[in-house]
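Dear colleagues,

As part of the handover before I leave the project, I'm documenting each prediction I ran so the next person doesn't have to rerun anything. This entry is a single chain, and its sequence is reproduced below.
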Amino acid sequence: MISILITAYREPTTVGKAIEAFLAQLPEDAELVVVAPDPETTAVVEEYARRYAVVRHVLDPQRGKPTALNFGLQAARGEIIVFSDGDVVVEPGALEALLRPFADPQVGAVSGRPISASPRETVLGYWSQLLTDSAHAVRAARAAAGGFLVCSGYLFAVRRAVLTPVPADALSEDAVISHRIAEQGYRIGYAPEARVRVKYPTTYRDWLRQKVRSAGGYAQDYVRRSPVQMRSAWLEIRYGTALALRYPRNAREALWTLLLFLARLHLWLLVLLNVRIRKMQFTELWQRVETTK
């Protein structure tokens, strides 16, 4: 059985699209569990639950995404759990492509491929496309070489048997889950045909909020002390610089790429300060990003 697990918070205008995209491609033996704490999102989900027997709503105590995921996992019945968010849309055929690698019993998890829905003609839209395309190149290369890769939290699937509860203060639940699976000796596959469209931040303030949260997860001990690694400031410089410098199509995009280098430096300095030195609490670091909705 397959369980789709969607977490959503204050996303009444987007969660319906996320649900419908999965409903169009669910196999027969599947369920769609949406975890949401707020009344506005809950009302939308429960309307779908009344119309479709495969849809269920789980109310969580609004203590952050890791806690919401754990509540969803307690309710989910599937042997394969597919994780996604209430503000993204999976493309047709994505689910079938995501599940295909599980034919290999040594595959413990499979990552989908995020696609930026933001326009390349703006600075932040260009950054989102550069970063998502670069992440695709890195994942594809690592998968081809049989190396470790981190799943994308926007769309990934995991064997239920290898899942453990997500720490309540984990800033990057996808990174924690990926590392723990690899540490058990399982491979993580990559399904580039499993595409999910993502709207990225449109202001620098929101961009920093989102990136400090996700990159900050790699500075937490759950990931930083793992024997397998894919992402850090040093690895980004080592493997990402050449990819970024080849990406621009014109002089304007080349300038935007240089600005991105400065922004990433700003990001990693904030991670060092707030996560490693100041050891800020989860509630301080996990700030809502409005412009992705």
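The mean pLDDT is 94. The beta strands are 2-7, 30-35, 55-58, 80-85, 88-90, 107-116, 155-159, 187-198.

All the best with the project,
I.
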